[in-house]
Amino acid sequence: MSDKTYAGVVLFSSTGKEILTHRCLLARFSKVFKKLFDETADLPVQHKINEFDTEIITAAVEFCYGKLGAIKDKEIKLFEFAEKYFIQELKTLFFIK
């Protein structure tokens, strides 16, 4: 997603780069994001993720959009991201492989 007009969420990576996405998508996959969105009235929701770089955050978001190829060669960091944000479907995928 590259257009802020329809982005419900702006995630900022450890380097400050913006990753645009939809609230409903992240809330479906992550209880942590759902809680954040439920507690925030501002749109778009802005959230800084200091622990992960743009590549990892983008790969996690792309996984939520169904792009499984996005996780290749990033498994360890993505598992850590999935742990932090309780993205169970992403964590489970690593055990299936």
UniProtKB/TrEMBL annotation:
InterPro entries membership: BTB/POZ_dom (IPR000210), SKP1/BTB/POZ_sf (IPR011333)
SUPFAM superfamilies found in the cross-reference section: POZ domain
Pfam family membership, one: BTB
Domain of life assignment: Eukaryota
All residue ranges annotated as the BTB domain in the record: 7-73
Designated name of the protein: BTB domain-containing protein
